[in-house]
Amino acid sequence: MKKSLRVLIVEDSEFDAKIMVTLLRKSGYEVVFERVENAEALREALKSQPWQLILADYNLPLFNLSCE
Question: What's 61's DSSP letter?
Answer without folding.
Answer: T
